[in-house]
Amino acid sequence: MKLARNILIALVAGVLVGLVLNLFAPGLFAKADVFLFKPLGTIFLNLMKMLVVPVVFISIVLGTVGIGDPKKLGRIGAKTLGYFLITTAIAIVIALAFALVVKPGSGGGFETEGIAYEANEAPPVSDTLLGIIPTNPVGAMADGNMLQIIFFAALVGFGLAMLGEKTDRLKVLFEQADRLVMFLITFIMGFAPFGAFGLIASAVGSQGFDALRAMGLYMGVVLGALVIHSIIVYGGSVALIGKRNPVWFFKNFFPAQVVAFSTASSAATLPISLKTAQERLKVPESISSFTQSLGATINMDGTAIMQGAAVVFIAQAFGIELTMGQLVTVVLTAVLASIGTAAVPGAGLIMLAMVLTSVGLPVEGIALVLGVDRLLDMVRTAVNITGDAACAVVVSQSEGVLGDPDAEAAPAEVETI
């Protein structure tokens, strides 16, 4: 927890420095952002992203080997996908209900004349599903196509499991590679407080206090829905299905949440997320590696909450009344889009454009929420990875393999996590 404490201190310091420079020395902030804040954040993000592909590939291979039985693998996959789809639907319903009650876009005097936003086109869901099978696994790794990497790694793991003793040496090689990347994660995390300081100082300083105040009600709706969803849905599923104390769950997974908040990237946080779930939540590596790696790619509850709140906010800002049929369409479109845009960069805004189009709202309204999206992205990323971990706990408990929470915590060399 020492590392988590240092990251929190760095985040608070970054917020204060960013706001002070924005208010009193904007010229100095511009220079500091270019030569200090952004370099610190970029170096940390690149170090974490550097490990994502090897961590996912090695973890999925070992996880599939550990599961072994194809029927068991299919069962775990069905439970994982079911959990993700159900919680995503609940997330967007919570956001819609909260936004309809609070009305963040009503009476705000938002300028809607002349705003413009050009939305990227998302691929059809069928293309995403067909694209899971890589024609070139090495190319998929070079491009960072996570769904293709997961598919190929699961296939390699399945082959190793079926060949048994004939591939024992190769299994040992993967186990040793796993130890190596986990050591590298621990080593790189020592730089996390500096990276967190740079990222938050840049984000807060570039937005400024006026932008935050103008969008305060919208931000409050999104943040409130994120907190409610985390406590009730994730905490409830951990308690009722996972048979674990939600306080224990959030306390032990907190270090990974802090990293997710500072990076605003599920992929960059994946190495530390896997490590934390396996060592602190006692989730078996075979389930953790599969569930959390898949979740980092397609589970977007935090993004779904942003979509629900943004749809209502944009409709109110433009003076448009949403019907019950349109609200149902928003829920269905957002749930399907969470899979359909899985491998697309900037998936959150593409998903929002799809949802707005599905109910006839102006896509240009996205420009209204872009100003504070970077800050909200940090919070919803923490919620996204929490959902992945909650799913791993629930699936592990349903399979009867979740470790004893009273057992020894983490080995000495990873106490910093």
TrEMBL record:
Species, as recorded: Bhargavaea ullalensis
UniProt cross-references to Pfam families, sorted A to Z: SDF
Keywords for the protein's UniProt record, in alphabetical order: Cell membrane, Membrane, Transmembrane, Transmembrane helix, Transport
Primary subcellular site in the record, as a coarse category: membrane
Intracellular or extracellular location(s): Cell membrane
InterPro entries: Na-dicarboxylate_symporter, Na:dicarbo_symporter_sf
Spans traversing the lipid bilayer: 7-30, 50-68, 80-102, 146-164, 180-205, 217-241, 350-372
Protein name: Na+/H+-dicarboxylate symporter
Membrane topology according to the record: Multi-pass membrane protein
Superkingdom: Bacteria
